[in-house]
Design brief:
The chain is mainly α and 305 residues long. It has a domain at 16-38 and 125-290. The chain contains 15 helices and two strands. The chain has helices at 22-37, 43-52, 60-68, 76-83, 88-101, 104-123, 130-144, 152-158, 166-191, 196-205, 211-214, 221-233, 245-261, 264-269, 271-290; strands at residues 7-8, 15-16. A two-stranded antiparallel ribbon has the order 1-2. The longest helix has 26 residues, at 166-191. It starts with 6 loop residues before the first strand and ends in a 15-residue tail after the last helix.
Amino acid sequence: MSGNVSETSGVSGTVEAADVDLGKVRQLWHLLEPLHAVLYYAPEAFEEAAALGYGTGERWPSYFPYRAAPLGAAGGRRVASAFHSFSPRMVDEHIGTAWRTASPGQVLAARERAVDRAYRAILGDRIDSPELAEAAALARRAAEAADTAGRQLAAANAELPWPEAPHLRLWHAATILREHRGDGHIAALLIEGLDPVESLVSFAAIGAASVERFESRGWSPGEWAAAGDRLAARGLIAADGAATEAGRELRRRIEEHTDRLAAAPWRALGPDVTGRLADLLGEFWVAVLGSGLLPSETTLGIGKV
C-alpha cells in the first residue's frame, strides 16, 4: 500500500502520512510481530510460567499475565479493554487469579528470562552478531519515537526499563511497536463502530483467518451469531457470513487507518534507516518462523490484509 494520501482525520486527530510509505509501515509490522510473539509460544516461556505457578496445558494462563503485567495488577475490565478482542469472561477467567499466583513484577522478570532463553535457542550464535546489535539499536530508536498518548499498552511497556542485552532490547522494542500499532488499531475499530466481537466477525468475513481460529477469543456461538446479525443489518456481511463489498471497504479503511496511526516511529527514522532495519530484521524473522513455534494461522491476518 502506498502512502500517497496526505492525511486522514477522525482517528486521534489528524495524522499526516505524505512522507511515509504505508507499505513499509505494514512490512515492519510483519517483520516485528513474530519477534514479539515468541513469548507466547516458546517452551522456555511455558517453563518460566510453570515455575511461577501458572498452568501450561494451553497458552492462555501465561499469555494473559505475560501481556498484561506492564499494566500492573490490573483487573479484568481494564485488561479486556486493553486487549479488546477477548470475551470479558475469558479475561476474568485468567486475570481473576493471575496476580494471586505471581505479582506483575515477578511476571515481568519471568518473561524477560523466557525471551532471553528462547532467543538464544532460536538464534544461536547470531545472538552476539553485529547485525542483531544494529537492529536492536534502530528498533529502539523507532520505539522511543512512538507516541503513547491514548495507547495504554504501548505506554505501559514504554515505561519499563530497557534491557542491557541487545537481543532483549530488540524484543522490548518489538513489543512497544506492536502494542503501539495494536492500540491504534483499536481506535480505528471504534471509529468504524465495531465492538470487540463485531471486529472479529467482520475480520473473519474477509477471510483474515478461519472462524475456528477466532473462536479462541472466548465468545459464545450466540454472541458470534448476534454480532453477525448486527453487521448484516448494516449491510456489511451477507447471509453466508462473507463480507459484502461495503464490509470489505470498511476493513480496508480500518487497516489503512491502522497503518497511518502506526507510522510515526518510521517517519522519525526516515526511509533509509527504516529500510536498513527491515533488511537487518529479515534473517531473525526467518529464524523465528523457521523454529516452528508460531502457528501458521493467527487472528492478526498477517499476509491476508
